[in-house]
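Re-run requested by the PI after the first attempt was lost when the workstation crashed. Everything re-entered from the original request form. Ligand of interest: pyruvic acid.
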Amino acid sequence: MSRPFEHHVTDSPDAPVLPVRKRGLELVHDPLLNKGTGFPDSERDALGLRGLVPPQVVSIDDQASRIMENFHRQYSDLDRYSYLETLHDRNETLYYRVLLSHINELTPVIYTPVVGQACSQFAHIYQRARGMYFGAAEIAHFDSMVHNWPEDEVEIVVVTDGSRILGLGDLGANGMGIPIGKLSLYVVGAGFHPPRTLPVMLDVGTGNRALRDDPLYLGRRAERLTGPAYDEVVDAFVRAVHARWPHALIQFEDFSNDQAFRLLARYRDQVLCFNDDIQGTGAVTLAGILSALRITGQKLAEQRVVFLGAGSAARGIADTIVAGMMAEGGLSLEAARRQIWTLDSQGLVTLDRFDSLSEHKRPFAQDSAPIADLLDVIRTIKPTVLIGVCGQAGSFSEAAIREMHRHCERPIVFPLSNPTSKAECTADQAYAWTDGAALFASGSPFDPITRGGRLLVPGQCNNMYIFPGVGQGAISCRAAKVTDSMFYAAACTLASLVGEDSLSVGRLYPDLTLIREISVQIAVAVCEIAFAEGLAGIKRPNDLESFIRARMFEPRYVPYEAV
Ligand SMILES: NC(=O)C1=CN([C@@H]2O[C@H](COP(=O)(O)OP(=O)(O)OC[C@H]3O[C@@H](n4cnc5c(N)ncnc54)[C@H](O)[C@@H]3O)[C@@H](O)[C@H]2O)C=CC1
Ligand SMILES: CC(=O)C(=O)O
Ligand SMILES: [Mg+2]
């Protein structure tokens, strides 16, 4: 059977010549093979390209300069997003070259915050098919549909059902922008080969009435499935993917919490998978807190942590902090949990609400009188760490942050909700309300600021520092499953890579330009756990780090050989 795509990956960096069957415009129009003006004369002759591209042969770096010139000419964030996606759809090598060389400038466009806007408008800015849609009505075809995808070597599948896209709620099939963005970060951050990544939308309908009424909406115009009908769709999807790509890792992303915990519990021992919002967020947040504690000289086990929001992210972070308090501070599980207070939309999560609480909130229900409001909780608890994961913009009030600072010299303030429009407070606010004393990190990026002549650089506490490396580790050693201990190791590894130069300006995370190095080190740590726990599917390579590095895709033009 002739395959629609070539095999796009050369695994031998020493002799990277790719055999190519396509010719002429068919080649130019394949984003995984296209080099545009970058095809050298020899390939223009051998591959039937003469006359099909402008005469000048342009280096990839000069192509990248043209891209950035045009990028800077775009008027709006959405234009910039669409411009980069057009490049993504035209020439993936160049897209990743540009992303990797302008990572701080472009990550906020392909990822949070702008990807949030792109998802809201997804049906209106849609240009070209990318990834796969598994619609509830097609459930009988899932097993055959997976063979419509041309790549046999898929390694990472990021799947959402669109039910909780960032802090923007149910965006239905518009949520596809999130798996696409996350997978771009897998390639940029950990060197996955682009054709080995697969973004997926599980289209089970949407509870978002405005979307269903939008004439341009591209998803199923039906109420969101729930109960057994929903479970059947997810089950059929996991089965089909696992049958076609048995070694692939499935990342569950942006599922509402009524599904997120259940699905993780159901599949985590069955297939290679994890939930990024629970586990990835837990790891990145613990790493940031550990960095902050290097500045204050305090211990994790001494911290009193208050969460505004008690959903997927809160539970994942709380569990990871508890693991840290137990491992490093010697606390018991119960003692560690007593250091953590969570608030949901009803106020403090307390034991007297136990019967009506969702399962995931119960372990953190405190034996305390009811308190409705964050300010009163802060007054009573006197937290040292405040984490916002409620998706409510501005919900860290000036009064609340000032009150926290009254009791705590260097308050750790992490408004983690995305995109920026949902952040619990801004960096400016946190620094202003604490006279620059806040140890701050946020889910979406904020610019550095200068206060009283002092440079303060807000860190970005986002799971993007974790999932690429965890994924690379799990895939490299063919892990049988992804465990919480791997995420804990990822957190400690990330924390260990924050330099004194970063801490001196209050930045609790490494600069993003280091993401590949971070991912390599996290991947090594994850593999070591897999080897130690007997979960690896390969024999341990003598030089594990080089083994991982050799797997990584570099965005450069590989010579082609006509076949
Ligand atoms: N920075 C990062 O890496 C990550 C950030 N997030 C962000 O965190 C936010 C929450 O995500 P999830 O936990 O998955 O959502 P979720 O829906 O599971 O949890 C939201 C929680 O906020 C609570 N809440 C809503 N309104 C509230 C209010 N006014 N006061 C107090 N609590 C309130 C809800 O009761 C619920 O417990 C989103 O904005 C998401 O973008 C999520 C994952 C990673
Ligand atoms: C970062 C992320 O995963 C979220 O906001 O959902
Ligand atoms: Mg997410």
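Saved to the shared folder this time. The pocket of NAI (ligand 1) is lined by residues 164, 166-167, 257, 277, 281, 284, 308-314, 343-345, 389-392, 395, 416-418, 422, 443, 461-463 (CB under 6 Å).
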